[in-house]
Amino acid sequence: MYETETFEAIMQRMLARVPNDVDKREGSIIYDALAPAAAEMAELYGQLDIQLNLSFADTSSGEYLRRRAADFGVMWQEATRARRLGLFWDEEEAPCDVPIGTRFSLRELNYAVVERLETGRYELESETAGAAGNADFGVLLPVDYVAGLARAELSDVLIPGENDETDDMLRERFSTHVQSPGTSGNISDYMKWALAVSGVGMVQVAPLWDGPGTVKVVVLDSSMQPASSQLVEDVQYYVSPVSGTGEGIAPVGAAVTVVAGEGVAVNVSATINLSGTATIETVQNNFRAAVAAYLKKIAFAEDPSPKYVRIGSMLLDTEGVQDYSGLLVNDETLNVAIEPGQVAVLGTVILSE
User: Fold this and answer.
1) Helices H, strands E: what count in the chain?
2) Which of 56, 83, 266, 336 allows an S-S link to 158, with CB 3.0 to 4.6 Å?
3) pTM > 0.90
4) Sign of dihedral through CA atoms 332, 335, 339, 340?
């Protein structure tokens, strides 16, 4: 808005107010007297422009965006800690129990036992907040001594850890909240309630799915994968722990069923001609990452079906690939059909020369 208020423009206006019979050339007494004030005013106009942008959600950022969203009840989401499944065995390879609070490590991260699920199966929480706690799998090393423990393993991601919410993510949630307000248990309300549970990344709502008063809430985790049973249970407890009673946040009379999205594997195979700039292993890893990112992007989208042509284009755009032939997606040369409540998840990727 104040882009035109430059030092030169301000100086020109100020000098125009000085009589022409006075020396106004650069280096003159009048010019040198006015220049510092013009520089300060140009800086002030620049700051006014920044403050104006910070006052609107579409151009705001950081603390100012968080404060703007908070005025409408949309709170910035800090990083959360991953909840993982821990498996424990004694010397005879029988499942064994470990004390709550026992700490284990896997490479750079530590995990603490927080809840017993059954003998030898416990819920562990990463001590490091963020998505880093979702990545590793394998043998756990005890930080604390546990009598009788012979082997420990870090297994499934029960509730994914999430990084601090970015400005773009908060801006999108804020825009959705303002433009699609919830009203007494409409679809927007159920989506907002489910997304408020830590670990939920995407939601679909099916009203009247099993008759009057019924609502089905389908959830994915923050990695856009089918939600774990623990995450489904958390969402169910928050939204409606007892059907129709209104004990959760859902209104009285609503029979709410929370389920995980159904994963549909997308398996890709092709024969490729290498350009010589990358090995086939590198090509396969990069292509696999590209397809995974594509499937994550279209999860629960308006058109969630992976496109055969799009996958072929990604393969051709992968560094090291000169050409390809025989591309098959789920053993066909067709798009993968994804129905409501389903999500495409990456299966096998096999590239050969």
Assistant:
1) 8, 13
2) 83
3) no
4) positive
